[in-house]
Design brief:
Helices cover 9% and strands 60% of the residues. The protein is mostly beta strands. It has one domain (3-89). The protein has a five-stranded antiparallel sheet.
């Protein structure tokens, strides 16, 4: 299970050099990311999920705290995490893949 999401963001570009950090202005980045839950830790009430965003040249991980259910008819934790992610505004337009 994973998601595919078009990501467009803007931020400061910095370059790390042997002489120090050089700010290189503002840059805009857009790419299609493969979004995958890589780790889950928690308890019966909530989990912290590490979610990896993978693009052609970009990769980063974000942490999400997500409420979960341990009821006998509840989906497994991983499925609950993906369902919850798709309710967040930052995942509007995400597709299952």
């Amino acid at each position: 299970m994973a998601l595919r999401k078009f990501i467009e963001t803007e931020g400061n570009s910095i370059v790390h050099t042997p002489l120090g950090v050089i700010e290189n202005g503002t840059c805009r980045v857009s790419f299609v990311a493969y979004v995958k839950v890589t780790s889950i830790n928690g308890n019966k009430n909530q989990v912290v999920a590490d979610v990896c965003f993978i693009g052609d040249k970009v990769q980063f991980i974000k942490h999400y705290t997500i409420p979960v259910s341990v009821e006998s008819n509840a989906p497994n934790f991983i499925e609950q995490v993906y369902k919850h992610l798709k309710t967040l505004s930052e995942f509007d337009g995400a597709e299952d893949c």
